[in-house]
């Protein structure tokens, strides 16, 4: 029971982390290495909001807005000029963004760790079917599931979702229909970085809030995105669940082998389905 | 790149074959090569060590026997290869001594280099016993505490807190496993039963399953060797399930001022060994804390205090030799005694180059004094050197 | 006639380094006429198309839509001024059904006025228009199939439907029959004839019989220049045209 709940909470965190990355990749083919830095930015932003106002919930609103605002700047100033260049140029640029964000956070908040605690309502453990679990984890599961549902509905059922999916498939054709793809790209990039910042803020009560925190999570993000299929939200959900439960099981039975287990899962999926669980080959390069 | 490496190698060869004179002439400067982690996860430690050393240099007006002290700070990135590479080029350029690194693997690698090049190495952080195995290293000195001493303190802490059954969580690397094994041996002599153990990868992403096992094990205490980020993750996630209300939580170096700032209420009442602490009641410490606060506007951390104390001691010994021969410094440091360190008397072991000193145990506390951070550490026990260290034969 | 041209090019020139792809091309396209543009490979037809839609910036010259200078406008802005296009290689949105493809195009034509976060179902207008277009291009039975699974001919029909959704006054068709199988050729040609009514159409096509059947005026290009123009029958006889095609594989 505990393994299931903890596995689901890990899955929720993995999904929140990787959804933005996969969305951004799906849109412009951009592999945003700075995703982890936006996650860090969200955690620090969340800390700042809680420190100033005392409200964790307000942090969940303001941190992603901040992340999205920085995302707009990065997309407009750094990425827009290089969409048509070789992928390594974009990769180098996102690496540059990592350095800038890290220096920025260091300048504003210093080298110290920051303390972010769960809100009082969620601080006490609860007992579910004989297991002691944290109320905060149950909240995370619900929050992750709600975000997944919301993203899915927006992408599949709203006009803006249709535009985003179409622009991922063929930006030139979308332009020919009279839609400003640049605006859509900026929007999606900002939304993706906002999601990363949200993940940073919402998981801050569980992890160290420090300058290096982005590097650890970016690998997890890539594992999820590659297993799920690049650019697929459905895939991100499935891969997060798979990886979260495998990890929880791993911690239960062989905690020293958890990372190895994750990578084996990655390799197995790639051997059986090279494009990931829900990936498809892109028709146009 | 190849050319640069060639020059470095040539310089290194020249440095070695340079004929040593009977009495070394006074150099134009006394060069300290500090190689510590200044970026990445170690930066928070490295930055404080640097501050501590700077205060020690200021105290001497940055001169030694009339010669200016020149210190270079290189970022080791926490990696053994980078540490050795940067130290080698500093030594080739004429460094008189080396200060560093932070992590045990990098420091052990660094000691290999300084032994070979016959340059003194001052260690204030790394606790690996391999650095002070009797008779092994001639040029390396540790003024900070070693693993054996910290584990001894935690075993004493368990006894005083009436721990009966303990569950262990240990990172899966050799030094940590050794530390846990040592604790188990000590615990057995005190009648403490080990009811379960788990090993985790580091960095660890989630502890909740391991913590759940600990809570179901029937243990009344959780002992963990996890450090730094792992310790923070563990404490935050232990707090999530209210573990502290059910079990005592403690470990060697588990919490300090830095970690308390990171975990806040989740660190309160957690037991730990302490290295240096700003509240230690010695005249030299009062003096140091005042200088440090004046310069940096905050209390010195354990890392800053240890670095200060080690550098101050070493520079004093060098000055007292009135010699510029490294061999004279090493001879003087071996078996030297400082009676007015920030932690009272320290004796440098002649057999192992490990400083004998008092050891501290403490717990995380919420602090209310206006000039203190909200969360910090309180010393609960002070152990005398005789209780922890074996004397040199 | 120049005064009320639907689309006018003025001395358009495109250079790529030392290579001149389009060399001082000027022409006024009258409203409601279908123009066939022919010429050997490398004559500059596709470059002309790209300059007209706004994908390629000309080195010199200007483009006017209904006498408004649009040379500085980008693709989406020109599309909103009534310029539609199809691509040389069929382009539809993979991963979306035929119906969704058309609904997107319907939505694009009213993009700026809609509250985009509401469910697509609450916009009956776009769905109605998409359904009507299914009938126009003859894809009613394929409505729920993913676009990437369509045959070449049906893919062309869908692409055309996407371009028509905005009811463009000017339609640029870049080899709309390329890759369409023999069986579907007549059907697609009929469709082109049907949807061209009332619009200014620029048709680039290598299939001569289709061009001769559909076009009212044929423009012949070579080396980036307009070398001849006239009605299809006259162009078929023109010696310059025969010369242009001699030795070429078209």
Describe the 3D structure.
The complex is a heterotrimer of chains A (285), B (393) and C (250). Chain A has a domain at 16-213. Helix content of chain A is 73%, strand content 3%. Chain A is built from 11 helices and 2 strands; from the N terminus they run ααααββααααααα. Chain A has a two-stranded antiparallel sheet. By secondary structure, chain B is an alpha/beta fold. Chain B has 2 domains: 2-145 and 281-357, 3-Layer(aba) Sandwich (Rossmann fold); 148-274 and 360-388, 3-Layer(aba) Sandwich (Rossmann fold). Helix content of chain B is 43%, strand content 21%. Chain B has helices at 2-17, 43-59, 80-92, 104-117, 147-160, 174-189, 208-216, 228-240, 243-246, 257-263, 283-296, 302-321, 326-333, 385-388, and strands spanning 30-36, 63-64, 67-75, 97-100, 121-123, 140-142, 165-171, 193-200, 221-224, 248-251, 271-274, 337-341, 344-348, 355-356, 359-366, 375-383. Chain B has a 7-stranded mixed beta sheet. A 6-stranded mixed beta sheet of chain B has the order 2-3-1-4-5-6, sandwiched between helices. The termini of chain B are far apart. With 250 residues, chain C is of the alpha/beta class. Chain C has a domain at 2-90 and 168-188 and 198-245: Rossmann fold (3-Layer(aba) Sandwich), CATH 3.40.50.300. The two termini of chain C are 32 Å apart. The relative contact order of chain C is 0.19. Chains in contact: A-B, A-C. Chains A and B meet through helix 1, strand 2 and helix 10 of A and helix 2, strand 8, helix 7, helix 8 and helix 10 of B.
């Amino acid at each position: 029971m505990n393994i299931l709940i903890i596995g689901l909470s890990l899955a929720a965190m993995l999904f929140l982390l990787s959804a933005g990355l996969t969305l951004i990749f799906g849109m412009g083919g951009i592999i945003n290495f700075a995703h982890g830095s936006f996650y860090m930015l969200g955690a620090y932003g969340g800390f700042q909001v809680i420190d100033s106002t005392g409200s964790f919930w307000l942090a969940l609103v303001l941190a992603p807005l901040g992340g999205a605002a920085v995302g707009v700047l990065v997309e407009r100033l750094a990425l827009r000029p290089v969409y048509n260049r070789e992928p390594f140029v974009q990769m180098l640029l996102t690496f540059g963004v990592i350095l800038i964000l890290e220096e920025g956070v260091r300048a504003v908040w210093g080298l110290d760790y920051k303390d972010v605690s769960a809100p009082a309502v969620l601080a006490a453990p609860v007992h579910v079917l004989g297991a002691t679990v944290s109320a905060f984890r149950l909240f995370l599961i619900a929050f992750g599931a709600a975000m997944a549902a919301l993203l899915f509905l927006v992408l599949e059922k709203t006009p803006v979702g249709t535009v985003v999916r179409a622009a991922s498939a063929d930006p030139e054709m979308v332009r020919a229909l009279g839609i400003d793809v640049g605006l859509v790209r900026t929007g999606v990039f900002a939304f993706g970085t906002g999601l990363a910042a949200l993940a940073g803020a919402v998981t801050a009560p569980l992890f160290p809030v420090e300058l290096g925190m982005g590097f650890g999570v970016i690998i997890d993000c890539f594992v999820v995105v590659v297993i799920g299929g690049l650019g697929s939200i459905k895939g991100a959900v499935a891969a997060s669940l798979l990886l979260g439960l495998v990890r929880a099981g791993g911690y239960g039975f062989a905690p020293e082998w958890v990372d190895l287990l994750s990578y084996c899962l990655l390799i197995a999926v790639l051997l059986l389905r090279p494009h990931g669980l829900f990936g498809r080959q892109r028709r146009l390069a | 790149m190849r050319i640069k490496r060639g020059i470095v190698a040539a310089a290194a060869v020249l440095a070695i074959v340079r004929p040593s004179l009977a009495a070394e002439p006074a150099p134009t400067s006394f060069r300290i090569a500090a190689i510590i982690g200044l970026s990445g996860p170690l930066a928070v430690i490295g930055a404080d060590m640097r501050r501590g050393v700077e205060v020690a240099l200021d105290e001497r007006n940055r001169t030694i026997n009339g010669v200016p002290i020149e210190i270079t700070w290189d970022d080791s990135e926490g990696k053994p290869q980078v540490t050795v590479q940067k130290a080698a080029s500093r030594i080739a350029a004429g460094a008189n001594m080396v200060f560093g690194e932070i992590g045990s693997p990098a420091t052990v690698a660094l000691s290999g280099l300084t032994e070979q090049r016959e340059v003194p190495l001052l260690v204030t952080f790394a606790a690996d016993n391999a650095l002070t195995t009797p008779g092994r290293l001639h040029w390396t000195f540790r003024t900070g505490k070693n693993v054996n001493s910290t584990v001894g303190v935690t075993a004493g802490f368990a006894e005083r807190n009436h721990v009966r059954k303990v569950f262990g969580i240990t990172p899966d690397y050799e030094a940590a496993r050794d530390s846990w094994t040592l604790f188990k041996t000590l615990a057995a002599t005190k009648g403490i039963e080990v009811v379960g153990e788990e090993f985790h990868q580091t960095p660890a992403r989630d502890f909740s399953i391991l913590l759940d096992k600990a809570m179901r094990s029937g243990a009344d205490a959780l002992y963990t060797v996890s450090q730094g980020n792992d310790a923070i993750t563990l404490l935050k996630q232990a707090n999530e399930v209210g573990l502290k209300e059910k079990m005592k939580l403690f470990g060697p170096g588990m919490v300090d001022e830095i970690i308390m700032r990171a975990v806040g209420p989740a660190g309160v009442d957690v037991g730990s060994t302490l290295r240096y602490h700003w509240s230690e009641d010695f005249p030299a410490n009062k003096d140091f804390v005042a200088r440090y606060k004046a310069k940096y506007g905050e209390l010195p951390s354990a890392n800053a205090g240890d670095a200060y104390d080690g550098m101050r001691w070493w520079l004093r010994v060098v000055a007292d030799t009135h010699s510029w021969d490294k061999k004279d410094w090493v001879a003087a440091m071996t078996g030297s005694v400082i009676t007015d360190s920030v932690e009272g008397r320290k004796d440098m072991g002649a057999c192992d180059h490990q400083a004998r000193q008092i050891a501290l145990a403490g717990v995380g506390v919420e602090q209310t004094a206006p000039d203190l951070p909200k969360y910090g550490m309180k010393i609960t026990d002070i152990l005398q050197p005789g209780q922890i260290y074996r004397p040199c034969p | 006639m120049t005064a009320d041209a639907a689309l006018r090019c003025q001395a358009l020139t495109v250079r790529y380094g030392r290579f001149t792809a389009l060399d001082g091309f000027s022409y006024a396209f009258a409203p409601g006429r279908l123009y066939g543009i022919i010429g050997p490979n490398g004559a500059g037809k596709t470059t002309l198309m790209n300059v007209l839609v706004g994908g390629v910036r000309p080195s010199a010259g200007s483009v006017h839509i209904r006498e408004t200078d649009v040379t500085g406008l980008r693709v989406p802005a020109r599309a909103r001024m009534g310029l539609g296009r199809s691509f040389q290689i069929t382009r539809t949105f993979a991963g979306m059904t035929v119906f969704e493809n058309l609904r997107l195009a319907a939505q694009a034509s009213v993009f700026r006025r809609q509250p985009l976060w509401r469910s697509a179902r609450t916009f009956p207008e776009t769905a109605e228009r998409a359904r009507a277009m299914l009938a126009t291009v003859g894809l009613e039975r394929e409505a729920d199939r993913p676009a990437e699974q369509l045959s070449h001919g049906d893919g062309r029909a869908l692409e055309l439907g996407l371009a028509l959704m905005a009811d463009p006054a000017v339609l640029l068709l870049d080899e709309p029959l390329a890759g369409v199988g023999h069986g579907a050729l007549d059907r697609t040609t009929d469709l082109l004839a049907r949807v061209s009514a009332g619009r200014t159409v620029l048709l680039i096509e290598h299939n001569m019989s289709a061009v001769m059947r559909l076009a009212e005026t044929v423009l012949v290009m070579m080396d980036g220049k307009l070398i001849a123009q006239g009605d299809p029958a006259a162009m078929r006889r023109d010696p310059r045209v025969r010369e242009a095609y001699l030795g070429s594989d078209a």
